[in-house]
Amino acid sequence: MVENRAADREVLTEVQGSVLVITLNRPEAKNAATAAMAEQMAEIIDDFEANDELFVAVITGAGQTFCSGMDLKAFVRGERPSIPGRGFLALTQRPPTKPVIAAVEGYALAGGFETMLACDLVVASEAAKFGIPEVKRGLAAAAGGLLELPKRTHRAVAMEMALTGDIYEAEFGYRHGFVNRLTAAGEALEEAIKLANAIAANGPLAVKASKRIITESPGWSEDEKFDKQAEITGPVFASEDAKEGATAFAEKRAPQWAGR
């Protein structure tokens, strides 16, 4: 993947080892999402999925805020920051098969909050603020918030957030389980990259399989769950990486993953 730091792009990328850092880049609008951002995100995510040297992505926002949702002025003009079949910012309906971490400073609201929920893990600073305020605008959190939030926290918490549209402090998210790690203000990205590197040190096939099972298994019946799990883990156990992992452990060295 070619890194893109052009200041006029609405989504920037930077490769740090095997970690891809994606930055939403409309700080003057609190990173409110546009159709152009969604199109750029679709391209970036496709490149990330296809690149065997990238294992984890971190999504953050410029200007000490994550994403305040869709650009309402653009919405009034008929523009939506979504891709058919892929969702808000090309992420909420069909996330990548590889792990994605949200690094949240400032506001993660509406579609921004739903983008955060589409990530597998969340690192937030104490300055982060969360909410799905769509009901206050006569809308509903249809980009995944109403579907995903009850999976990440208690039903009652999801119901309160969805029906009041209120904004909640970072500690609320941490206490109720949809934030994995809480940091001091300004340190969310640094901590998210540390977490990404800890994941990227592991076997990529095993990581992808583990994510897939955790994501898909809630829909499996009791009778089929171990068979379905075996379909996913079988190729992992038979892989070159599995042999390398065992050999590296025996030889007391770091494994060299091949991704096959």
Automatic annotation (TrEMBL):
Alphabetized GO MF terms: enoyl-CoA hydratase activity
Coiled coil: none
Keywords attached to this entry: Lyase
Presence of keyword Ligase: no
Taxonomic superkingdom: Bacteria
Originating organism: Enteractinococcus fodinae
Lyase is among the record's keywords: yes
Uppermost EC category: lyase
Region (Disordered): 237-260
Protein name: Enoyl-CoA hydratase
Family according to the record: Belongs to the enoyl-CoA hydratase/isomerase family.
Enzyme Commission designation: 4.2.1.17
Biased composition regions of type Basic and acidic residues, renumbered to the chain: 240-254
